[in-house]
Amino acid sequence: MREVATLRERNHELEGEMAKVARVGKREELDFAEEARTWPGICVSEKLARNGDFTLAFRDPSGAPLEPSLLVDNKDKTVVSESDITKLVRDAKERSIPVAVLVARDESQLRQVDKENRWGRRDGIWILRTTRFWLPRDLDVLKPIFERMRVQGMDFLDRNAVLADEVGAHLLIWIGLTVS
Question: In the β-sheet with 125-131, what is the strand arrangement from edge to edge?
Fold first, then answer.
């Protein structure tokens, strides 16, 4: 009986710790959405129940969201992991969204490989690895690309690999300027 009581107590402690972690993650997501809703020309969905945190899109003059939508997943943890990227790609596929954005709270949470490969494609999904600070500028850089995707088809970048590489280089230059 003592052992069962000890296990119950330990289980209760672990549940409390897990609840704290969930609240911190939820607060980060809601803070992000509140901030992103203040950006001009950007439309942010309500919190998604599953498969990502939010969808984000540019708005037309009437305020309607434009394609492509971007699936956004916020991370506020010590370091973003490869499993975070894999899950993001899976979630984007499940929602049939061609572009996914992993948003770290701070640059220090991105791995070196994330910083060197901020824009790329995995399993048919375009992925942007960014931070809350970098994202508004990244969206400015990517806006003409998304407009061309909308007009010329979602496979526009697949047909223009050189342009896709140039976008990645532009994003690297941008963080190089901000980090220096």
Answer: 42-44, 54-58, 70-75, 99-104, 125-131, 119-122
Name the pTM for this structure. Answer: 0.74
Q: What beta strand segments (E) does 7-154 contain?
A: 42-44, 54-58, 70-75, 99-104, 119-122, 125-131
In a domain, 173, yes or no: yes
Domain tally, the chain = 1
Whether the predicted pLDDT of 42 surpasses 50: yes
Longest CA pairwise span in the chain (Å): 69
Report if residue 2 sits inside a domain. Answer: no
Query: What residues make up the domain containing 95?
Result: 24-179
Instruction: Quickly state the pLDDT bin for 180 (edges 50, 70, 90).
Output: very low
